[in-house]
Design brief:
There is one protein chain. This protein is mostly beta strands. About 5% of the residues lie in helices and about 60% in strands. It is built from two helices and 24 strands. The strands form four sheets. Strands 1-4-5-8-9-12-13-14 form an eight-stranded antiparallel β-barrel.
């Protein structure tokens, strides 16, 4: 069994200190803080012109919103030498909000969001520490935030917005060393961290609203959320303090009272686009874990990556268009999983891809300023993988010297397909803003490791959110 230095974590096999202590000492403080945030929001709203002659009018300037999103969080740098916890991406995050319009261009809102991620590895180079996580472990964050949002009156059919928020955040970390019950080796599951901490959280918001009906709006935004100080301890009482940052992308449906909407009227009608166009997009991509064919290898954690696209296309009919699109995709690699018998290693490097796709897109409401669309595409992708692993343990035997190895440095090609949905918003007769959600899947990419062993990725899945502009050449 790997020994954990006192300088990092003095966790032993005694796990008698559990969440019960934290719930008794810390849980009692969470509800009052949440109430204070809610009361603070109501107080701000009351000071901004709430009073009206009729009780029914009080809800005219209120709105409610529900959002689903995708998140990426930085590794948890722990207050213990250079120890950190690497975790996977977060998907299908949920957010709910209520708010009130203040004047014509300002909103005050209260939102609650949850972020769930799966930890992969606990690592410290200076302490010679490498611990694989148990399947049931988690890194969970939640936030209750009061936001001040400014809607920018740019164009008739879209409203960019900027916001700042402050409130209470909670981080809950459960990390344990995996238990083994094999014929030749046994070891019990060992708890390392099982604690939570709360504190002040801040966030910044940038997004865009488009109308669906007079009261229903669709919004998309990017948020950066940060807790500066989170007090955590391992099960022995040693400090594991950290901070926590989350980058997230969201799609929201917002339902407004009669006086709460961003728009005074439905989107005006426009002539359907014709002829040729060019466009470009920029955004972020969330890569899923990748299995290596015929091997017990998994690329187990990626960073949030960059996606960039350029395209040229032609409007076949008012509702249909076809385009040829070139794209660049990049994701850094953080963790490699070898097998349950060998475990995981920390990793560095990246997977980069260039794709060429033919997309066919169907556009709803071609005569409107706001034009939702769906699309399918297929083509070819060239991917380059450059991955180096480093770690201290193999087959449950650990060495004090870190072992580094070049796992793969090769490239290959494969077929690829993508599905998308999004919305176009006309800015003028030629220029439109476009935002879309996309899901890319590739076929098998054949490559080789430095020793000649095949390294063939079975499939690659990337979820991306991109935004950009399209310029119509046909008018």
């Amino acid at each position: 069994m790997q020994q954990i230095p006192n300088a990092v974590f003095r966790a032993t096999e005694s796990t008698t200190r559990t969440r019960a202590r934290e719930r008794v000492t810390g849980g009692a403080h969470r509800l009052p803080a949440a109430r204070r945030c809610a009361i603070g929001l109501l107080g701000v709203v009351a000071l901004t012109g709430w009073a009206g002659p009729a009780a029914a009018d009080l809800f005219d300037r209120w709105y409610g919103a529900f959002g689903v999103g995708w998140s990426y969080a930085d590794r948890l740098e722990l207050d213990a030498d250079d120890a950190y916890i690497e975790a996977d991406r977060g998907t299908d995050q949920l957010l709910g909000a209520i708010g009130r319009r203040v004047g014509d261009d300002w909103r005050v809102e209260l939102d609650y969001a949850r972020f769930d991620r799966s930890p992969e590895i606990l690592y410290s180079r200076s302490a010679g520490l490498e611990i694989d996580t148990d399947e049931g472990d988690s890194v969970e964050a939640s936030s209750l935030m009061v936001n001040l949002v400014r809607d920018l009156r740019i164009g008739q059919a879209w409203r960019p917005y900027l916001g700042i928020g402050a409130g209470r955040g909670t981080l809950d970390v459960e990390f344990a060393e995996l238990g083994i019950d094999g014929p030749f080796f046994q070891r019990p599951r060992r708890q390392i961290i099982d604690d939570s901490g709360s504190g002040l959280a801040m966030q910044v918001i940038a997004g865009l609203t488009v109308p669906i009906t007079r009261r229903l709006e669709l919004a998309a935004d990017f948020r950066y959320w940060h807790m500066a100080e989170v007090d955590l301890e391992d099960v022995s009482g040693a400090s594991a303090d950290t901070d926590h940052s989350i980058r997230s992308a969201w799609l929201h449906l917002r339902y407004n009272g009669s006086g709460a909407g961003v728009f005074d009227a439905p989107a005006p009608r426009r002539d359907a686009e014709q002829g040729w166009y060019v466009m470009g997009n920029l955004g972020g991509g969330f890569a899923q874990d990748e299995d290596i064919e015929d091997q017990l290898l998994v690329i187990d954690a990626f960073d949030l990556g960059t996606v960039a696209t350029v395209a040229a296309g032609y409007h076949l009919r008012p509702r249909w268009r076809a385009e040829l699109e070139a794209s660049y995709w990049e994701n850094s690699v953080d963790v490699m999983e070898f097998s349950k018998d060998i475990g995981e290693d920390a990793a560095s490097g990246s997977a980069e891809s260039l794709s060429l796709m033919l997309n066919v897109i169907y556009q709803f409401a071609p005569g409107s300023t706001v034009r939702p669309f769906v699309g399918l595409g297929g083509g070819w992708i060239r991917s380059s993988y450059d991955i180096t692993t480093f770690g201290f343990c193999r087959n449950f035997t650990c060495d004090p010297v870190e072992q580094r190895a070049l796992l793969v440095d090769d490239h290959g090609t494969a077929t690829a397909a993508q599905a998308m949905f999004g919305v176009d918003v006309a800015i003028n007769e030629r220029l439109s803003f476009s935002a879309s959600y996309r899901q890319l899947v590739t076929g098998t990419t054949d490559m080789r490791r430095p020793d000649g062993t095949p390294f063939n990725t079975e499939r690659r899945y990337i979820t991306s959110v991109v935004a950009g502009f399209r310029y119509n050449l046909g008018r």
